From TrEMBL, chain B:
Annotated GO biological process: transmembrane transport
UniProt-listed PROSITE patterns: ABC_TM1
Ribosomal protein keyword on record: no
Residue ranges constituting the ABC transmembrane type-1 domain according to the UniProt record: 66-282
Lineage, broadest ranks: Bacteria, Bacillati, Bacillota, Bacilli, Bacillales
GO cellular component, one term: plasma membrane
Name listed for the protein in its UniProt record: Sugar ABC transporter permease
Gene3D superfamilies listed in its UniProt record: MetI-like (1.10.3720.10)
Organism: Cohnella abietis
Length: 253, 296
């Protein structure tokens, strides 16, 4: 057997077959996990990213340059995969939890810089006048800044949704339970298991009788459509905001 | 003071997340110098000096993995940047009506995960059912065993990476082009400059800062690869490792399949340090040439 296959539990072989043809539970469950992590992750991520970016976009904020450098540095230097793995599994104890599928992607340097570039284009007069009317920072942010940032928020939201929807890496690293498996990872497993069912060994060991129908290429294609489809349907709805929202502006540290 | 407190409250959640997920792991940079025992933790595990690096540098895997990572990334930087700028310039010249249609087509690959993309490539290159092999057979040629012959993969990997990333990066440059004051073009037109001349004398110089910024960031991650690309598109086939194994897939195998934390963390350490030094060097060079364009 090839090298990478060892990470896949052997007892799953038949489940893969069942997923498509017989029992939809695994598929439905992973749809649920994917949708839930996408919704929660995108909303929380947008809030965290935008509020941080807003603070460092304000020229009159005292800690502006420190916080800007604080996030910028993460784009240049990071600990790598192994320390992150130990952090998640050992220090935070997040193995096999839904949080492991959400927390690591909530904030990233690039998204903060994109948002900061956009938020900097908001005229200071708008914020000044709200302040004169006696509004607090939180109120200004929620009631004035967010509503006029819709194009940027739409872009950011799409990026977040995409990131969470397409993620399989976090599942690969941190999740072993079937009931927390994301769609993309399920797809990897299904594809690999079918490979196995099609192999000579499977016939030799009687897992598959000669002439038995293993899901065809078209069945596998159907899985791919299930995994990719929703994102492709969402994209056109957001597209008109895209170029507007992607204007990067000044990204200096 | 009250003003600062309000903004600090807004920044706080992000700040905490950055500390936990970006700065705490830096402590793990000690790992390569330790013989890590799960029960002892990082600090209490015994020091071993550079042993983990020795193991890493002695293996013949290192040469292969390093060469692949750097050559692929250099190709992506040069080819990817050039193509994205060209596509952005073309989009800019198109009438606004069709821009959206082209953007949609360019962006679709970006919205597909590497898992699905890997499968799309599989349907092209499958030994028996793949489109290409069927075509070869229908011409009376021998089918090619794509997934066991490493020599084709440098091309396939580059095509896959460009195909998937082109839409996104070209839209970033397109957005930058949209920000250029149209008076420059009007003036150039009066002087009789051709479209090509305008592109080279106005468009490219105007978006140069963002091109340089993105290139510096890419140079900083020259030791990192898109794991999804190298894992899914190649189906993680060990027969192809000579041309498809990169540092990230190697670290992943060392950690998950072999449980070799020492070697995996030594390789990770190498990526972080080398990447950071490259950013500093590139940035210093850019700063020497033109301080305006440097990243920091």
């Amino acid at each position: 057997m090839r090298f990478g296959y060892s990470i896949i539990p052997k007892n799953f072989t038949w489940d893969a077959y069942r997923v498509i043809l017989h029992s939809p539970q695994t598929l439905l469950q992973s749809y649920f996990v994917t949708i839930a992590t996408t919704v929660v992750g995108s909303i929380v991520g947008m809030w965290v990213t935008t509020s941080y970016a807003y603070a460092i976009s304000r020229k009159d904020y005292r800690f502006r340059s420190f916080l800007a450098f604080f996030i910028f540095f993460t784009m240049l230097f990071h600990g790598g995969m192994v320390p992150s793995y130990i952090l998640m599994v050992k220090w935070l104890g997040l193995k096999n939890t839904a949080l492991a599928l959400i927390l690591p992607y909530l904030i990233s340097g690039w998204f903060v810089m994109l948002m900061k570039g956009f938020l900097q284009t908001i005229p200071e007069a708008v914020i000044e006048s709200a302040k004169i009317d006696g509004a607090g920072e939180l109120r200004i942010f929620a009631q004035i800044v967010l509503p006029i940032s819709k194009p940027a928020l739409a872009t950011l939201g799409l990026f977040f949704a995409l990131q969470y929807w397409n993620d399989w890496w976090l599942t690969l690293l941190y999740v072993e339970h079937d009931n927390l498996m994301k769609l993309q990872y399920l797809l990897i497993r299904v594809l690999k298991n079918m490979e196995y069912l099609n192999s000579a060994e499977a016939i030799e060991y009687g897992l598959v009788k000669p002439g038995m129908l293993v899901p065809s290429l078209s069945a596998r294609m159907a899985m791919c459509i299930l995994a990719a489809g929703p994102m492709l349907l969402v994209f056109p709805l957001f597209q008109k905001y895209f170029v507007q929202g992607l204007t990067v502006g000044s990204v200096k540290g | 003071m009250k003003k600062n407190a309000g903004l600090s409250m807004l920044a706080l959640p992000g700040f905490l997340l950055i500390i936990v997920f970006n700065y705490l792991p830096l402590y793990g940079l000690l790992l390569p110098f330790k013989s890590y025992r799960y029960n002892l933790g990082i600090w209490n595990s015994p020091w071993v000096g550079f042993d983990n690096f020795g193991f890493l540098f002695n293996g013949d895997v290192l040469y292969r993995v390093l060469r692949n990572t750097i050559l692929y990334n250099m190709t992506f930087i040069v080819l990817g940047t050039t193509l994205s700028v060209v596509v952005a310039l073309l989009l800019y010249e198109l009438s606004r009506r069709f821009v959206r249609a082209y953007q949609t087509i360019l962006f679709i690959p970006y919205f597909i995960s590497w898992v699905v993309a890997g499968f799309a490539f599989r349907s092209l290159f499958d030994m028996e059912y793949g489109v290409i092999n069927r075509f070869l057979v229908s011409l009376g040629e021998e089918p090619i065993l794509w997934y066991s012959d490493p020599k084709y993969w440098p091309y396939i990997i580059v095509i896959a990476a460009v195909w998937k990333g082109l839409g996104y990066s070209s839209v970033i440059y397109y957005a930058a082009l949209m920000g250029i004051d149209s008076e420059y073009y009007d003036a150039a037109k009066i002087d009789g400059a051709s479209k090509i001349r305008q592109a080279f004398s106005i468009s490219v110089p105007m978006i140069k800062p963002i091109i340089i910024m993105l290139v510096i960031l890419q140079i900083g991650s020259i030791c990192y690869s898109d794991f999804g690309l190298f894992y899914n598109v190649t189906l993680n086939s060990s027969l192809l490792y000579s041309t498809t194994d990169v540092i990230d897939t190697f670290v992943y195998r060392s950690l998950i399949d072999l449980g070799d934390i020492g070697m995996a963390s030594a390789a990770g350490f190498f990526q972080s340090i080398v990447g950071f030094c490259l950013v500093l060097v590139t940035n210093t060079i850019v700063k020497k040439i033109n301080p305006e364009n440097s990243l920091f």
